[in-house]
Amino acid sequence: MQTMFALVWNNEVRKLFCQSQRVMRVIWVAAMVGSLGALVFLVDPDDAQPHRILVDTDADTDDVFALFYLLKQDSTRFDLQAITINANGWSEAGHAINHVYDILFMMGRDDIPVGVGGEGGILPNGTILPNVGGFQPIIDQGMSTAGECRYRQAIPVAQRGRLDVNSNYGLRKAFLPQGSRRYTPLQQPTAQQVMIDAISSGPITVFLMGAHTNFAIFLMSNPHLKKNVKHVYAMGGSVRPNCPKINSSDSSGECSDIGNLYPQDSNPYAEFNIFSDPFAAYKVLHFGIPVTLIPLDATNTIPLSKSFFMEFERRQNTYEAKYSFQALKIIRDTWLSDAFHEQYCMWDSFLVGVALSIIRNSHNLYGENEFAEMQYMNITVVTSNEPYGALDGSNPLITGYSTPRFNVQKNGVHSGHVQMGMQDPFCLQKGKGKCQDGYTKEGTGEDAVRVLVATKAKPNHDNRSILGREFYKSFLHVINSPERTGRFDIRTQYPFHREFLYKPDFGKKIRGKPVVFDMDMSAGDFLALLYLLKLPVELINLKGILISSTGWATPATIDVVYDILHMMARDDIPVGLGEAFAVGQANPSFAAIGDCKYSKAIPHGSGGYLDSDTLYGLARDLPRSPRRVYTLLEDTQAMSMTIAKEMFSLFPQINMQNLTCFLIL
C-alpha cells in the first residue's frame, strides 16, 4: 500500500514538475523574444546594411591616398558604390579617368562604376540639360564645354600643378597595372549618369574631395533624390584657421592668411576646393542635407611630419603603400621650400578617416570620432563681394538678364562682384586682397547653415609613439594591411617586361634634311608625327620634337608622344615641353599660374582636351615607354630651349635656309 501510494505520489509530483518546466520554458522564450524585440528596437536599421558611399574626386595625389584608405575598408561595412571625376580642379578628365581605372584594377575593384564629363549644357534661363560635364563652374556654364578659367587659373598648369597630378609625377605609367577599362568616346559613363544610378538605388553617403560642381548640378537637376542622400562629407573651406598673431599689438583676432590660394594679393580667404566653384558649394550647403566639413582649420593641424614620413618609408608592405610613398617622396623632393613637412597636409585622406569614424560612432550626437575634434558652426559660402546689386559686368548670374539666372535675387548675396581671376583689379590691393569668393564664413543671419566642422586633429593616444596624431597611426595601419590589398603592379602583372630604350643604328647612312617638329598634340598632329617617322632617314632626319602646352592637349599628354616614339623604335629623339601659357598670360607675381585668354576656345569634353589627352582612347594600346614625365629628373622646358642649340653645334654648316621646322598649331 505504501509502495502504491509512493508510486502515485511520485507520478503526480513528476507531472507537476514537468508542467512547471513547460511553464518556465514559455516564460523564458517570451523573455527572450521580448529582449530580442528590445534589441532590434535599439539597433539602428541602417547599421545592419553596408554604408553605401559615393566619392566625387578631382584625382589629386592626396585624393589617391584617400581612395586607397577607403578601398581597404571592409566592404560589408563601407561599400564604395561609385566614383565621379571632378573635371574642374587639379586634374584633366582624360588623365584622371584612366588613373582611377588603373587604381581600381590594381585593387581588384573593377565593379565600381566611374563617371566623368558629359556634353550637356545650361540654357540662358537657367534650365539644366542632362549630363552637364562639370568642366566649368556653374555660373560660367553655357551650352559648350569650352569656357573661361575664372577660378581654375589659381591652380598651376605645369610642374607642381596639373602636369604632375595628371601623370602622378611620372609614377602612374611606371607603377600601376593596366586593365581593360579605359575612356572610350561616346561610351564613357558621364558623371551625372553615375551619380543618378548610385543615389537612386538607395540611401547613400557622399564624399566630396574637390569642387562641388558635379554634386550641385545633380541636386539642382534631381531634387526628388535628395531624400536618398544621408550625409555629405566635404574636404574644403577655411573657417577659423590656427593663425598665431605676428605681434602682441595685433588685437584684431583676424588671420592674415585664412585661405591657401597663392599669391594672396587678390583673395586671402578661399581654399582651393571651394574656390573652384563657390556657387556650387553654396548650393550644396543650403540644400537641406546634413553636411560635415573638414576645412583647413583641421587639416593644417595634421601636416605630413618628418616622423610620419620616416615611418612610412620604413613600412611599405603593400603595392598601394609603395605607390603612395613614392609619390610623396617626389613631392617632397620637388617642394618649392624646405617647409614640406609643415605645409603638405593630409587633406582628403583625413576627410575619409574622420567620416568613417563618425559613421562607426553614429550613436554620438556631436560627431565624436577617433581622429578630430568637432564643433557645430553656422557658416555660409561667399559667392560674390559687396556692394550687392552692383552691375559691373563681372557677375554672369546678373549681367545681361532681366531675370537673374537660377532665380537669385538682384540685390542678394549672389549679386555682387564675382572675382574674374587672380589678377582682377577689383580684388587686388597691397598686402592683402579684398575678394572673399569661396570663403566659408561664419555668420548669424538667415543665410548661415548649421554645419558640423572639424577643428583640430587629435593627438596620438600613445604618448610614447613617434607618430604625433592618431590618424597617422590609422593610415599606416590600413594602407599596409594585407587584407583587401592590391594584387600586382605593372612589373608583376607582366613579369617578363623590361624597360629598354630603342635607339636606331643608322650606320653610314647619309642623313636627310634635319627637321624639328613643333606640335600641340592634337589627333592630327599625331598622324603627322607618324608620317614623319615613316619617311626614310635619308630624306627627313627628325632631330627633335617641341611640345606646345597651349593648344589642343594638356602637358601630361607628352607621355603619348614618348610612347609613339618608343613604338617606332625612336627613343633617340629628344622631346621638349614648351611654356604653359601664351605670351603675356602668366601671372606676373607667380608664373606657375595664368590666364586662358586664348585656350578658352578649346572644348574640355568631346572633340577637345578629353579626346586629345587620351588619343580618343587609343593611347592605352601603345607600349609604355621608359621615358615619361619626370619632374625631378627631366626638365623638359630646358630641353626645349636646347634642342636648337644642339642641332647647330652638331651641324655648324646648317643655316636657317636649310633647317626645316614644321610648325603644326
TrEMBL record:
Example GO molecular function term?
A: hydrolase activity, hydrolyzing N-glycosyl compounds
Would I find Nucleotide-binding among this entry's keywords? no
Q: Show the Pfam families listed in the entry.
A: IU_nuc_hydro
Give the transmembrane region(s): 23-43
Statement: the UniProt record of this protein carries the keyword Protease: no
SUPFAM superfamilies attached to this UniProt entry: Nucleoside hydrolase (SSF53590)
InterPro entries named in the record: Inosine/uridine_hydrolase_dom (IPR001910), Ribo_hydro-like (IPR036452)
Tell me where in this chain the Inosine/uridine-preferring nucleoside hydrolase domain is found.
Answer: 53-386
Annotated family: Belongs to the IUNH family.
Q: What is this protein called?
A: Uncharacterized protein LOC111277257 isoform X5
